[in-house]
Design brief:
Length: 636
């Protein structure tokens, strides 16, 4: 199924323009950036002040929650105060469970967001067997409940976002489609069909998930369905519950960026567990990499795709040492530009040397290989770390050293020298792919300076698959920025997109100006964590806060991190209200969910196991719950 214009030649998918107040989304408009307030919507002054801070840094749509009729009515006061002070940015009402609040909001704000999973359905985590007749009856009930809002939006010129969330699919959808991207799309399509029945088309669609693989697959599947049904609605992109700090930025960039590389997306929201105004610069930097790009390398058009873009399946390769089939993707670090190399330099990528004990210790985020160029390493390095040298230097300084491997700039005339593992730099635009057919014990290091990096690499991926070449590949990407946040976002976009497609057995991050090795290393591991191809730390599925939140999310997330960040592979959902939990933390191992002021429910997966725990005791109770279920280990 076609899911974008051309996976090998990026161009923006043409969508219809949807007017939202004084701006347009889709069509030929720029990609819009937006965020959501965290203040209580009934607190007019706080909501207005927060909205202004967001708008002042470039927010083009401001979303506010409207959980009740009173909240929806108060949107009029918030809007009036903003307009009085010269702020005309469109407002969006966020609706869950409350159709009458949506209908009030539709007469006040420029856009209403509804979640198909809970607008007309109840979610009780029940498995119900539906016959075709009973399923049709449910669809008729949904249409009856949803149609009044459609008519009001059409009458008032109000736009609508139909926003499906992976974690809040209704029991009805789950019973028939399961917890799948297809189920997410079907949930939205039911509402889209009702809108089209009433000739209402001012619609934007989203398919959000905290799992980047699910999120990307859902959007691709949505576009495929829309193209089949001749729909052209704009897309709102976002990774929901991405978290905070570095993890939240990398995870958002991986998911949103992979779709931007497909030419998909008309408005984006980076969901961070931080102040909403902090989200806007991140979104702007994410988009900036596509502005004023150099001319892309020309590639053939309308090619078939031998890998499935709707299902994550890693490319089959041979196994060479710890690289390729069956192994988690490896991480490269680079010390080749250092004047000299000392044991202390290895700290930046996860290795600590104690001179007193004459021993190395490692961290969870320890790189697998380090490229040292032409340097001679005259001290013992950690046994699990591979040294990579330029071939000429390896012959002199590394040939007789254990765990030291050569890297070649071109195919050697006399064959590869190392008996187990050799690296070969290869330009993916090199057409002499037949030269790779009979190589063994060789790992390709792929790099290109093309502005259409992802598409060039995809094209080479296709070539390898069609020619049945199963050598492992290391994806090397070099960015050109002095801004560390842009470095993380742009690397995550490019490498994350390819890994989601199943390509790559390792990553090597580089930048034209120096970036601290520790940041480079954590970014590499963060990309693999975000694509769920190598789990190296605790994962926090943390909502970005809004007016429904019942506790301080930033403070609580920091507190939970402090006590649990050593629990490698454990997923913890931190949700500010019952709307976002337990559904939105769909695949979390443990959940911390606000239910009313000062009270927390604790979950084991989707089951509540402790109710109404006082907030001051809840973090300790969460730790006890993790211990009881055997997932706790003491921090080192």
């Amino acid at each position: 199924m076609k899911y974008c214009n051309d996976p090998y030649n990026r161009s923006r998918l043409q969508t219809r323009e949807v007017p939202v107040g004084n701006i347009g989304i889709g069509g030929k408009n720029i990609i819009r950036v937006q965020s959501m307030t965290t203040a209580d919507t009934m607190d007019t002054a706080a909501s207005v002040a927060e909205s202004k801070r967001m708008i002042d840094v470039g927010c083009e749509l401001v979303r506010l929650t409207a959980p009740s009729k009173k909240d929806a009515e108060n949107l009029a006061n918030i809007k009036a105060e903003l307009v009085k002070d010269g702020y005309n940015t469109p407002l969006v009402a966020d609706i869950h469970f409350t159709p009458n609040a949506a209908e009030i909001a539709a007469g006040i704000v420029e856009k209403v967001r509804v979640n198909p999973g809970n607008y007309a359905d109840k979610k009780k985590f029940e498995e119900i067997e539906y016959t075709d007749a009973s399923y049709r009856a449910e669809l008729e009930r949904i249409e009856e409940k949803f149609t009044p809002l459609v008519k009001l939006c059409k009458e008032n010129g109000t736009a609508m976002r139909i926003g499906t969330n992976h974690g809040s699919l209704s029991d009805r959808i789950l019973s028939r489609y399961g917890d799948t991207p297809e189920g997410m799309v079907e949930s939205a399509m039911e509402f889209l069909h009702i809108c089209r029945k009433h000739d209402f088309h001012n619609i934007v669609i989203s398919m959000k998930a905290s799992n980047t693989l699910v999120m990307v697959q859902a959007y691709r599947f949505l576009v495929a369905r829309m193209l089949e049904e001749k729909m052209d609605y704009p897309l709102h992109l976002g990774v929901t519950e991405a978290g905070d700090g570095e993890d939240g930025r990398i995870k958002s960039a991986v998911g949103i960026g992979a779709l931007l590389e497909d030419g998909l997306g008309d408005t984006i929201r980076v969901s961070l567990t931080e102040a909403p105004e902090a989200e806007i610069p991140v979104a702007q930097k994410l988009i900036a990499q596509y502005i004023d790009q150099e001319q892309p390398i020309s590639l053939p058009q309308n090619l078939d795709t031998p890998f499935d873009p709707f299902v994550h399946k890693r490319r089959h390769t041979v196994e060479i040492q710890n690289i390729g089939e069956g192994n988690a993707p490896v991480v490269f670090s680079d010390l080749s530009d250092n004047e000299d190399i000392k044991p202390s330099h290895f700290f930046g990528f996860g290795y600590n040397y104690s001179t007193q004990l004459d021993k190395w210790s490692t961290q969870d985020l320890s790189a697998d290989f380090v490229f040292v160029g032409d340097h001679n390493i005259d001290f013992e390095v950690p046994g699990m770390l591979g040294l990579v040298m330029n071939f000429e230097s390896w012959i002199v300084n590394g040939k007789d050293k254990k765990h030291c491997f050569p890297i070649y700039d071109e195919l050697p005339k006399n064959g590869f020298a190392h008996a187990q593992l050799n690296f070969l730099r290869w330009d993916p635009l090199n057409e002499n792919v037949q030269d790779l057919h009979f190589l063994r014990d060789v790992v390709l290091v792929l790099e290109t300076n093309a502005s259409n990096y992802v598409q060039v690499m995809r094209h080479f991926y296709r070539t390898l698959m069609l020619k049945n070449i199963d050598l492992p590949v290391i994806l090397k990407n070099t960015t050109n920025t002095k801004d560390t946040e842009s470095f993380q976002l742009w690397q995550s976009t490019k490498l994350g997109a390819l890994i989601i497609d199943g390509f790559g057995d390792g990553v090597w991050l580089s930048n034209k100006t120096r970036i601290a090795p520790q940041l480079v290393n954590t970014t590499a591991f963060g990309i693999l964590q975000a694509t769920r191809t190598r789990i190296s730390k605790t994962e926090y599925i943390s909502c970005p806060s809004c007016g429904r939140t019942l506790f301080d999310l930033q403070e609580t997330t920091a507190k939970i991190r402090k006590h649990t960040s050593h629990l490698k592979g454990v997923k913890i959902g931190i949700m500010g209200c019952i709307v976002n939990g337990p559904g939105e933390m769909a695949d979390a191992d443990y959940g911390y969910v606000g239910t009313r002021p000062g009270k927390i429910h604790l979950y084991k997966e989707k089951t509540v196991v402790r109710k109404n725990v006082p907030e001051e005791e809840a973090v300790a109770a969460l730790i006890d719950l993790i211990k009881e279920n055997g997932d706790w280990n003491e921090p080192k």
